[in-house]
Amino acid sequence: MNKCIEVHQLTKTYDGRKVVDNLTFEVEKGEVYGLLGHNGAGKSTTIECILGLNTPDSGSAKLLGKEAAKHRKTVFEKVGVQLQQSHYQNNIRVGEVCEERAAMYSHPADYHYLLKQFQLEQYIHQPVAQLSGGERQKLSVAIALIPRPEVIFLDELTTGLDVAARREVWQILKLLKKQGMTLLLTTHYMEEAENLCDRVLLIKEGQKIVEGTVDEIIKKSPYNNLEEAYLWYMGEEKLV
């Protein structure tokens, strides 16, 4: 398999604190890879460095074989991104958001088809602000797919959604996985990681704690489920 993302000894410091600390990992083409860690663990900063939105102090991050900051246009055409905070203009409608995004690419996907696939076509004339949380998150994935990306980044996509909406989004991501899409996602939900990820990386204070499949992560711990294993790796679960 080809390496889609290569992160090597990545380090980023803010105000004297290492937010990302000598982090190294790789993501293969067609893989769903999960970054797991508490708030402030460095997950979002790592993604920003990979995308070239943030400059690391040292180390390197390559996306599709290139440093995104140096090859922004080339990489931009092949990557879909949904970041934690998706901001839209006041009163902008669903169709307008999609049209604006499609205009940024040479060969965009048909956003009408994407909206239909995500069961959002009936909202095309509706302001984004009036969508439910689940509908907004589905829209963010649809928008991320407009460039026909080879890899897509999803940063805490389902945070704040109810169980039904979260599972609906999972079904979409599973479909993308079947289609061979490479996904890098961050999540606080262990069930989400178990359902979606081929491999996961646990990080704490910017450092790698453990990496592997969900089964491998669990087997290396004293527990038999990912949630308890995760807390144990983070130093929060003690054996009784």
TrEMBL record:
Identify the taxonomic lineage of the organism of origin. Bacteria, Bacillati, Bacillota, Erysipelotrichia, Erysipelotrichales
Which InterPro entries does this one have? AAA+_ATPase, ABC_transporter-like_ATP-bd, ABC_transporter-like_CS, ABC_transporter_ATP-binding, P-loop_NTPase
Q: Gene3D superfamilies given for it?
A: P-loop containing nucleotide triphosphate hydrolases (3.40.50.300)
One Pfam family from the record: ABC_tran
Single GO term (MF): ATP hydrolysis activity
Organism whose genome encodes this protein: Coprobacillus cateniformis
Which superkingdom heads the taxonomic lineage of this protein's source? Bacteria
Similarity-based family: Belongs to the ABC transporter superfamily.
**What is the protein name stated in its UniProt record?**
ABC transporter ATP-binding protein
The record's section on SUPFAM superfamilies has: P-loop containing nucleoside triphosphate hydrolases (SSF52540)
CDD domains with a match to the protein in the record: ABC_DR_subfamily_A (cd03230)
The record places domain ABC transporter at 5-230
The record's keywords, sorted A to Z, are:
ATP-binding, Nucleotide-binding, Transport
